[in-house]
Fold:
Amino acid sequence: MLGYFVYHAVQGDRGILAWRQVDQQIALAESALQEVSSVRRQLERRVTLLEPAHIDPDMLEERARLMLNLQRPDEVVILNAGAKGAPITPAYPTAPDDRTAASMVARLPVGAAQN
Structure:
């Protein structure tokens, strides 16, 4: 009879081994919570830099370049897709050198508009 109780104290659903497993799960959950909290703090800081009341010009330029996929002709952009938290954007061509609205509109060949 004593063997039955000892076995369940060690191997049972609420035994010593189950207790250790729960402790490991708690440790994993706490480390995940710390990581997510860190990411949240970083995102909150970036959001405050983009608030209309006091917008950060550098942050605005960074977001506009990323969203519009533009760069200056003399710049080289290196995206590290393997880095943790690095944005992954599709590869789009760079903006034209003259940066005029007419240069960004697709131009038809001279005879193409006539049918």
Observations:
- Residues 99-115 have pLDDT under 50 and may be disordered.
- The longest helix spans residues 16-49.
